[in-house]
Design brief:
The protein is mostly helical. It is built from nine helices and no strands. The N and C termini lie far apart (about 115 Å).
Length: about 190
Amino acid sequence: MRHNITFIIIIFLLISVLVFVGEVRSWPWSRDMYFSPVITHEKKPSKDPESIPTGGVNPVVLAKRKLQNPVLVKNAFADFKNPVRPTDESIKNGERLYNIYCSACHGKTGMGDGEVSKKMVPPQNLQSDYAKNLSDGYIFATIVGGGAIMPSQKKALTQKEVWDIVNYVRKLQGFDPASRWDELNKK
């Protein structure tokens, strides 16, 4: 009799399991494909709250994005004129600061052959035609904002000190900084 009751209970459990399994069930962590963020042609993608609207440009967002993009910042500074006249004092201070902040990578002569550069991607050769054709404002923005592997010096140097370095770099490149400054700052 005991075996009959056990058999009846097992049969009842099997039938109840089959009756209540109306759909395939899965664990919550195995349904991620069902709830994935699929974009179909019927559903428009949600927009980033800071995306640029098609009806116009939000100037605050645009300004914020320009300031976050180093290339745009450098290009924005490209037209800036050097406000610091390259006097002997400015060039001497620029040389002192260049030797502290720049020569480890760019080398004493600006050829990109500093001690640190031997163990990494070589930095920009400041004697190259490319570097000589960069505007003072672009060089200023590069020193302040940094580059691909170049660290930013905005917290270490004042604006005047950065312009002093720019004046010294122009001397390193073989320019007469005072004559060049006079030529560029003609009205």
